[in-house]
What we know:
Structural class: alpha+beta
Radius of gyration: 21 Å
Low-confidence stretches: none
Distance between the termini: 24 Å
Largest sheet: 14 strands, mixed
CATH superfamily of the largest domain: Gcn5-related N-acetyltransferase (GNAT)
Amino acid sequence: MITIKEVLTKKDLNQFIDFPIRLYKGNDFFVPSLSIDERMNLNPKTNPAYEYCETKLFLAYKNNKIVGRICGLINHAHNEKTNGTRVRFNRFDMIDDIEVSKALIDAVSSWAKEKKMTQMIGPIGFCDLDKQGMLIKGFDQMNMFITYYNHPYYVEHIEKLGFIKDADWIEYKVYMPKESIDRLVRIKDLTIKRYGYKLIKPKNKKEAVSYARTAFELVNIAFAPLYGVVPLTSKQIEMYIKQFILLVNLDYVVFVMNKQDEMVGFGLSFPSFAKASKKSNGRLFPFGWIRLLHAIKHHDVIEMGLIAVKPEYQGLGVNALLLAEGVKEAIKNGVPYAETGPELEQNNKVLTQWKDFEVEQHKTRRSWTKLI
């Protein structure tokens, strides 16, 4: 018999966060989220997204043993933006038992109906910078630090429960050339000459922080039309600045300014922390923080985090500047390839930027939907 219990205590929350680590023990491809980040994300006192979101967390038990978890989330800001009545689900993990999956989805559905919701979508989190999408291709690939991993049976379960595709994201390995791509370098030089752009490479973290708020405001503008996106609030921006600055490698941070010294483009990539987080089981102590700090300077993979270009400057060479600079730094640091974050399959402006590179489309993830 399956029993569903709402997460109400600190002990419950710890079990909710730790469940995937136990579920995927011994799995070569699973990378856990940092436990400290998850405690912050799921606490209304520390996550500013709760200003416009509300959640319900559930654990599934079978024979007095935890066998699954799910987070139900209502993003009121996005529902207002789209005139929708949608509930999201995320942090959805379970053993290979369709009855467990059904019980968890039913728990979110019942809560959502009480809140007058009529449609369920997911996995999708608080905002675009939260992890999202169920893996449907690439089960033999280690997930990025910024994405989820899941077993293939998740897909079978969700389809049996009546969900259909709502949106797909695709991910690439982008292999670095031995030397900078000539075409990108030429475009970079011509673009700077034609438009008078200026590249800003911060010399220290204090300088990076001085540009960061403007950069995230640019992210709000550039990402506005994308699936599931609502603008980050001021408090969210401050939170992400504090998080990112701890783990940033300034080699992979670049801002593009126009002649009037207005920011028109922003690129932020990270050294991959996947192996460090995996080795520490998502915990900072006792040695997890040392492994993360080591990975900042010693890494063989880059995770492409954020690339944002002001809409009226898209197609005017800003992306080429950001890519050329990123390639230069990756070659300098001896990085063989980068991994893109999830990119919406219909976002052709982003997808076509890899045409000059050797790439491998190695993962696909999906957001599902059904009426409730």
